[in-house]
Design a protein that fits this description.
0% strand
Length: 127
């Protein structure tokens, strides 16, 4: 249980910091001069909170399918967070749906890698 709590907290902090910086850089770059950095916080936080809830509940929830893109609660959390990031990026950046999907694909992939690395690190510490 302690490992799940540590995984959840570390994942939330790392993903939040990364995603806020990522969305700030994307918005500052060229997408929209109307958005401000608080919009990056509004985009990153709801998806990250939802993902963190699914990561925390993953040990207690059963697998839904034996194999596939939605086979575990963490996969469902990442998918739901990606959908939230796409919709909020579209809304706050005022871009097309394709741009919003492309922008939100990178954070979803990086979130999976962060979860994997943090989990492997905690397993090494537990020994």
């Amino acid at each position: 249980m302690l490992t799940a709590i540590l995984l959840t907290l570390i994942t939330f902090v790392v993903n939040s910091v990364f995603l806020i910086l990522y969305f700030s850089a994307i918005m500052l770059d060229s997408l929209s001069k109307l958005t401000v950095h608080i919009d990056a916080l509004k985009i990153a936080l709801p998806g990250t909170i939802l993902l963190t809830i699914f990561v925390f509940l993953a040990p207690t929830m059963p697998s839904f399918m034996p194999i596939g893109p939605l086979s575990s609660p963490i996969d469902i959390g990442v998918s739901a967070a990606a959908v939230i990031w796409i919709v909020l990026t579209k809304r706050y950046s005022k871009t097309s749906w394709l741009n919003a999907i492309l922008i939100s694909a990178a954070p979803a992939i990086v979130c999976l890698f962060v979860i994997l690395f943090v989990h492997a690190f905690l397993l090494l510490l537990a020994g």
